[in-house]
Amino acid sequence: MKYSFIIPVYNRPDEVDELLASLCEQTLKDFEVIVVEDGSSVPCHDVVENYAGRLDVHYFLKPNSGPGQTRNYGVERAYGEYVLILDSDVVLPADYLSAVETELTQHPCEAFGGPDRAHESFSPMQKAINYAMTSFFTTGGIRGGKKKMDKFYPRSFNMGVRTDIYQKLEGFSKMRFGEDIDFSTRIFENGYKALLFPTAWVWHKRRTDLKKFFKQVHNSGIARINLTKRHPGTLKLVHLLPMVFTLGVGFLLFLILVGLLLMAWGVLVCHSTDCPIAASFSNCSPLGGHLVCFGLLPLMLYSLIICVDSTLQNKSLGVGLRSIAAAFVQLTGYGSGFIRAWWQRCVLGRGEFEAFKKNFYK
Q1: Where is the Glycosyltransferase 2-like domain (predicted)?
Q2: What is the pLDDT of residues 188-236, one digit of tens each?
Q3: What is the pLDDT of residues 294-344, one digit of tens each?
Q4: Measuring CA to CA, how many Å separate 277 from each of 137, 144, 150?
Q5: 263 and 291 in contact (C-beta within 8 Å)?
């Protein structure tokens, strides 16, 4: 057998149903499916049983230990030459596995990954979040696709590894966030090749609201510092961009606030003509207006770029407008997590587990 799909799942039986349904439609059939339930309170056993006659599918239940260790558990029970790691919230096009087969034939390698897309059935907010996670104008250029700002590192939502290499490297670490980048980095550090397979893409559902999305990308920002501590020298200039964006947005908002206060002060003193000293402060009003304009213009220009680009890509103004909020959440969430982790790990010197126990290790 050549391929083993590894699917960790935690309280998402409906998503597993959709993923398994898409696996039934694969044009290439040389694969098995291993579903590992990570201590869920809402199990998907019955869902998996429904596919027993249509797929070579195996179901395992284990205590909760996080996605990385759950994938390792599945790989230990796999028989394929390659293991294909998927998140439970993806759906595969019918030619996904045949695309992997073609890419491997043309570009042999020990590890690989593919990009993700938004399905037509996704909600406008899911499409907006997908845009924020994949756009060149956010940090999408380093995640996967043809427009890359850094070396491609396979991600766990769509990742393939030769099984013997996976076992030799002992799979995913106990990191609860960023564990896929940690694994990809170790693949490179040990002299193996990891490639982007652009034709082996998946539909990825993403988060359904901005609050959950912020938490996800905030944790990704924290993970970047943890990864830098584990792998010195891997922090690149591109990884600093969300932090710079976050600080820039904070500075611009500060200017707007100061400008509004000066404008309000100017209006007040204009009515205090009996006091010549107070009246002299009325000149603050024009200065306040300039500060407000200076703060608003860059934010409005960036918002316009995001809205136009997303609207054209998704053919929907509604998605384009939502993408503005999603892009700001994506960049400031990642940037604030990065800054927080830098303070905790690099300034205060706290350990990875100690500093973020509430975020990752509940």
Answers
A1: 4-134
A2: 999 999 999 999 999 998 777 899 999 999 999 999 999 999 999 999 8
A3: 999 999 999 999 999 999 999 999 999 999 999 999 999 999 999 999 999
A4: 49, 61, 58
A5: no
> Can you tell me the distance from the alpha carbon of 125 to that of 105, in angstroms, rounded to the nearest whole number?
38
Query: Which DSSP state fits 44?
Result: -
Q: What is the C-alpha separation between 329 and 41, in angstroms, rounded?
A: 30
Answer yes or no: are the C-beta atoms of 84 and 5 closer than 8 Å.
yes
Query: In the sheet where 31-38 sits, what is the strand order?
Result: 57-62, 31-38, 3-9, 82-86, 158-162, 111-113, 194-196
Q: For the domain 3-123+142-208, what is the CATH code?
A: 3.90.550.10
Residue 179 in contact with residue 173, Cβ under 8 Å? yes
Q: Are 294 and 255 in contact (CB under 8 A)?
A: yes
How far apart are the C-alpha atoms of 229 and 329, rounded to whole Å? 25
Average pLDDT over residues 118-122: 86
Give the C-alpha separation, 280 to 289, whole Å.
17
Beta strands 82-86 and 158-162, pairing class:
antiparallel
d(CA 50, CA 16): 11
- Residue 357's pLDDT band, with cuts at 50, 70 and 90, is low
Separation CA 280–CA 273 (nearest Å): 9
Parts of the chain belonging to CATH 3.90.550.10: 3-123+142-208
Helices and strands in the chain: count of H runs, count of E runs: 14, 10
H helical segments located in 93-162: 96-106, 124-134
State yes or no: pLDDT of 175 exceeds 50: yes
Q: How far apart are CA 233 and CA 350, in angstroms?
A: 20
Amino acid (one-letter) located at 298: P
> The tokens of 265 are what?
């002060």
